[in-house]
Amino acid sequence: MHYDKKHIRNFSIIAHIDHGKSTLADRILELTETVSQREMKEQFLDSMDLERERGITIKLNAVTLKYHAKNGEDYLFNLIDTPGHVDFSYEVSRSLAACEGCLLVVDATQGVEAQTLANVYLAVDNNLEIVPVINKIDLPSAMPDMAKREIEERIGIPADNACLVSAKTGLNVGDVLEAVVNYIPAPLGDDNNPLQALIFDSYYDSYRGVIIMVRVKEGKVKVGDTIHLMAANKNYLVTEVGIRNPKEIKTDELCAGEVGYIAAQIKDIRDVHPGETVTLLDNPAKEALPGYRKMNPMVYCGLYPVDSKKYLDLKDALEKLTLNDASLVFEPETSQALGFGFRCGFLGLLHMDVVQERLEREYGLDLILTAPSVIYHVYKSDGTMLALDNPSKLPDLTTIKEIQEPYVKAQIMTPKEYVGAVMDLCQNRRGIYLNLEYFDDTRMIATYELPLAEIVYNFFDKLKSFTKGYASFDYEYSDYKVGNLSKMDILLNGDVIDALSIIVYKGSAYERGSVVVRKLKEIIPRQQFEVPVQAAINGKIIARADIKAVRKDVLAKCYGGDISRKKKLLEKQKEGKKRMKAIGSVEVPQEAFMTVLSIDED
Amino acid sequence: MTNKPESLYIHIPFCDHICKYCDFTKLFYFEKYEKEYLDSLITEIEHYHINRVKTLYFGGGTPTSLSDEGFERILSFATQYLEDDYEFTVEANVENLTESKLSIMKKCGVNRISIGVQSTNDKLLKEIGRNHSFEDVRRVVSLAKAQGFDNINIDLIYGFKHQSARQLKKDLKNFIELDIDHISIYSLIVEKGSIFYSQGVKEQSEGASRRFYEIILKTLRKNGYERYEISNFARNKKYSRHNMTYWKNREYYGCGLGASGFVSGNRYTNTKSLTEYNKHNFVKESEKVSNKDSLEYYLITNFRMEQGFSREEFKQKFGQDFAEMFKDKINKFLLSNLLVITPDRVKLNDDGLLLMDFVILKLI
Asked: Which of A186, A581, B228, B289 is deepest in the core (most CB within 10 A)?
C-alpha cells in the first residue's frame, strides 16, 4: 500500500460551472474502479444533495485513486476537488496549494470563461503544472480547435497536447489519466524533515471530532504524535491517520507528498482553518507554509424563525451547520419587528443561499431572512470606528464623521456587442471604471471597482439578462472607500420596522425609496384598514404608498352544500401564509425583507 | 356522530340550456338519459337506508327540466322519506315551471319553491344566457301562488361587470314587488368551468361589489326582509331550513351526479361523470373530517349566519371557549372590530360578514 513519491500525483480540476468538472471526476473514479458502478451515484464528489442539484461543489472533497498506467506501473492519484464559486476563492487557492498540477477543463462549445481564468491564475500562482482538457467534444457544436486557441491565446499555456474528451460518454478519459502520469510532476519533500502539512479541508464526525484533510509537504505524521497547529497555536494527540478512497481507510502514517486525513480529537472546527500548517510539537518546522489567511464573512443578514417558538431549533441547527462550516458565523440578535433571531455572517451570497436552503430543507425550519448587508465601517467624531453589520444599528447621525463601505474589483467578460449595456449596469451600480480590453476578436473584459453592497442584490441576474447569458463575472475583495451613504427606514402603519432598514447611497435614495414602497404595497396582503408604507431618510419621509383595505372578502356563493370546495380554497390561501411574520397586526411575507433591496421595477 | 342526517339533497343535473355563469354539474337535457339516471339516483338514495328527514331539497341543474313523468316519479319516490314536520323544496326555472309541474309538486307535498330569476333586466338576462323575461317571472310567481305555494324563493345575481347601481336598485324594486318571502342574492363569481370563465368575463371590482352588497342589505332590510345568512333574506321567518343544515355544519345526505354530502363524519363528493354514475360508482372523493378540519368547517359555515353560533355549543364540540381559544389572534389582528362576542354567542358584525374569509384566515 506504500507508494514511493515517484508514483504519486496530486492534482485538482479547474473548470467553469457547467463545463463538466464533476462529470469528469465521476468518470475518473469509474475508470480507476475507485467507486464501483453499484455505488456510483451521479457525480460522487458532490455529495450534498444541494450540490448535486445546483451542479456546483460547495464543500471540498478529496479522494485517493489507484491507477495502473500504460507503462505497466501503479500510481496513486490524489484528486482534490475545489469549489467552483467566487465566494470560496481562498479555499480554492488552498486546495490548489496541496497539488502539483491541475486539469483545466474547458467546454469545447463555450471556450474559456472569466471564472476559469481567475482560477487558472490561482493555479499559476501556486506553480502548478496545467493539463488542458477539452470536454464535450461529442456535441455537434463542439469547436475543439477554437477552445485550444483560446487556451493558448488567453491563458497563455500550450494546448497542443490537450486531451479531447467527452466526460459524459467517457470518450478518451483514459488519455487524461495518462496525461496526469506523464505531465504532472511527482511531489517533492523529504520524510525526514520536520513535519509541514497543509490543511485544505475539514469535516466533523460526532465520534472523532473534527477530521482534517491534509497534504503532507515535508516530514511524516503517525498515530500517537502530538501535532501543533501553527496559526491557531493548539496541540492535539493524533488518534488516527488514513486516506479516503472516498471511504476512509486507516494507514500507519502519512508521509511527504501524500494526501490524507488526521483525526486528533479536535473539538472546535473554528480552530482549524484552511491554509493552516500542521507540524509536530516535538520537532516543529521552522516556519509555516505560506498563504494562510483567516477568512472573514463578507455578507451579513438576520435569520429569524417564522414561528418564534422555533428559536431554539434554529440555534441548534446553526450550531450543527457550523460544525462543518467554519466560515459561517452567527450571534443572537433581537429585532423589535421579528423577535429573537441571529445575525449570521457568510463568505458571500451563494454561501448565504446554501445555508438558508440547508436550514429549511434539512432542519425543516421556516425562516425570515432580512436583506443581506455588507459590513460598513462607521467612523465616529470621537475617533472610534464601528464595524456595522446591521443597518438598523447605525448610530445617531450627529455622532458620525463618515461611513465607508467595502468594494470589490470585478472582471466582467462579455461579447463585445453587449459591452455598452455592461458598462451602463456598472455605472448604475456606482462602479469605478478601471479598464476595458479586448480578450479576443469577439469578447471584451471590463474591469470595475464596485461597492459590494451594489452587487449583493440581483447584479448577476441583471448582467446575465443584459448579455443574453453570455457574460461571466468574477470578483475579489479590494478595500473600503468613503461613501455618500445614509440609512433608509421603512415604516409600516407609521412604525419603523427595524428589520427593513438598509443603508443606501444618497444619490439614488428617492428612487429606491419609491420603488421599495411600491413593491411592498404589492406583496403585503391587505388588512381591514388602510396601511401606509413609507420610506424615510433621517426621519424625513421620501416615499409613500398605501396598502388599501380589504373591502369584501367572502366567497358567499355556496349552494348545493359543497363546503369542501370552499374549504379547499381557504386551505390554499392558508398555505401562502406559512412564511408570513406578523408585525403588529400586519402580516408580512418573507419576500418583503428582500424587496428592500429592489433597485428598479423588475 | 350517532344521529343520522336529517336533510337530503337530490341533484338533477339536466338543463334545457346552459347559463353562462354556471359551473355546477349539468347536462343538456336529453330524454334518453333521463330514465337511466333516475334509476341510478334511486339506487343511490336507497343504499343510504335513510329513515326520515326533516328537509328535502331538489336542486340542479334544473329539476323542472325533467319530463312530467320523470319529475313525478322521482318526487313521489323521495316523499317516502319525509317526516311529518318537513320542508320540501324544488328549484325551478322560469321557462319550465309549467302548470303541470306545479300540480305534480302540489301532489307530492312540495311546500317551497326556489326560482332562478337572477335578474329582472331583460337585456342582461339575455347576456347571461337566460331565456326568460321579467314578464315571465311575474307570470310564474302568480301561477305558483295561485296553486297555493306560499313559500317561494327567488335567486338574484349581482356584480356583472357593466351592471350599474341603478340597474341593481331596479332589480331589487322588481323583486320586492313580487311580494314573496325569501330572496337569495349572490355576487357573480366567474368560476372555472363556466362559459363566462372561458370567455374571459371579469367580475366587478371588490369596492363596487361591497357597495352593491350594502345597497342590497339596506334596501331589503327597509322592506322587511331579515338577513339571516350572508346571502339569504327572509320575511315572516321563512328561513330555508334545508340550507340552515349546511350553515350549521350539520350532516346531510347528498345524492345525484356531482352532489356532495356529509354523512357519519365524512364529507364526500359524487362523480361528475354520468357514465360512472350509471355504473353506480357514485362517490368520487371522500374525506374523514379531522378535529382540526372540523373546527375550520365549523367556522366556515356558522360564521355565515347572522346569529353566528352559541358559545356553549362551540365549547361542547371543541373543548374550549371560542374567545379563550382565539384570544391572542383576536387581539393581534384587531378582530374585535369585526366580531361580536356576547355572553352567549359569537357572530360577525356587518363589516365582519363582508370580510369573513379574512377573519377565518387569521383564525385558522
From this structure: A581
